[in-house]
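Might you be able to check the backbone structure tokens below? Thank you kindly.
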Amino acid sequence: MIAIANKRPVHLLVDKGYDTDAFRAGVDDTGVPFCIPPKSTRKAKIRWNRGIYRGLNRIERMIGHLKINRVVAVPYHKLLSPHFEALRLATFNKCLRRALLRLTSNLQLIRKQCKTSKLFESSRNAEAKDKIN
């Protein structure tokens, strides 16, 4: 898996199913840092980074999204390059949607804070007084 990558991976993230001494030794020989949570049946305590392991969940959700949108499921092209371009486009679309959702939620939060602030109220009262006069 590591041998076919173009770039050296930053971390290798795998599930508990790969928690064997032989697999850990094989990955350790490659020099790539790995994050494998220990199985519940393991006798010895093994330290692992939960923060890094959460990245696996994000990757799996992204692949699930691409499968739902039929980007990964069936490559309709004979060549792989259009398939990879479709993957890139779908991934970009997903990331753009997430960024827009964050932006709109931040704007809504700012609007709520402005409405509740005293500064906004004082300017509102001044406008109301101007309308009366």
In short: The chain has a mean pLDDT of 76. The chain has four helices and two strands. The CA atoms of residues 114 and 133 lie 26 Å apart.
